[in-house]
Design brief:
By secondary structure, the protein is of the alpha+beta class. Helices cover about 30% and strands about 15% of the residues. It has 3 helices and 4 strands. The protein has a two-stranded antiparallel sheet. The longest helix is centred in the first third of the chain and has 18 residues. The N and C termini lie far apart (about 40 Å).
Length: about 100
Amino acid sequence: MICADLDQGWVNDCNGHSAAEMDCSIVTTHMMLKAAELGVGSCWVCLFDPAKAKSAFQLPDNYEVCCLLPLGYPADNAAPSERHTLRKSKQEVTTVL
């Protein structure tokens, strides 16, 4: 479980946005890369109830659960889902200003 401490995250003075969740994303990516380097599989999980996770682990109010990161050794026949290679076109994900 990767959590943001909302009391410690840098806050942009211009818009009040906390970088805590972005920092969690960066850390999670590095954890996944290191795990892969060590031969350990991982999967970024976003579909969960953050309130239930927070309650189950008795996290303080200032903690926000950003994602879950199960780790383990992949089976020899493990393969990505067929949806893994589906991509949107550049036109669908970009806007020229």
